[in-house]
Amino acid sequence: MSQIVTLTTDFGLKDHYVSTMKAVILGIAPDVRFVDISHNIPPQDVMAGAWVVKNAANFFPDGTIHLVVVDPGVGTDRNPVALEIENQFFVGPDNGLFSLIADQKNYTACRLTDRSFWRQTQSNTFHGRDIFAPVAAHLATGVPLHKLGQPIDKLITYRWATPIADKDGIQGWIVHIDRFGNLVTNIPEDLIEEISRSGGLKIYVGNTILHELVPSYGYVEDGEPAAYIGSSDMLEIAINKGNASEMLGVRKGAQISIVLQK
Asked: Which of 43, 88, 138, 247 is most buried as measured by Cβ atoms within 10 A of its Cβ?
């Protein structure tokens, strides 16, 4: 069976970058199957890339290789790495991209130091083509992780602020905005369930107040805001058939508050 290689980048599809990485991989491992997770990560937004990979990777079968390139530090002394987490492999820069997928999970990682698995020449600005793509391809041909370089015990990780909960409610933040303009928060479903046992909820986001959770945005009228638990098991805010970020004037990093109505 052919090996699956996924790609997640901030390259977009206007230029040649994505197809060039695929060409390099096919030159080494011609039977791989490609899955494009996303190439529309906002430019240089490492944590947006981390969020997208976290929410997609666990659904792929064992042995899948995830090539992830959101690399504002390309050409600097940041490390190129590969790691294995729960029988899946990840290749990319050690800049926080793997923060969320490796959070609270055991992993084996190495710094990519064996240049025999790179392209013979390397650009200072396109390690996706010259380092990460060939390494992913060699993994697809069966090269074991430990052959690729020196083992490392700790990756660079970033954490979003955790929501603050007390007897009066929850304070959280918008951590991701998807292409529909839906606002994804850092408030998990179980935290909302825990405090809601004491009474009703009033949700403040931007200048808008929502008085209830609904199963989905389709439960409110067109153009109206909705609060619901999204597919990532986090609280989300959307506008039915609209863009919540634009219509509510809310950007990533904005505060969201849930007040307990006793």
From this structure: 138
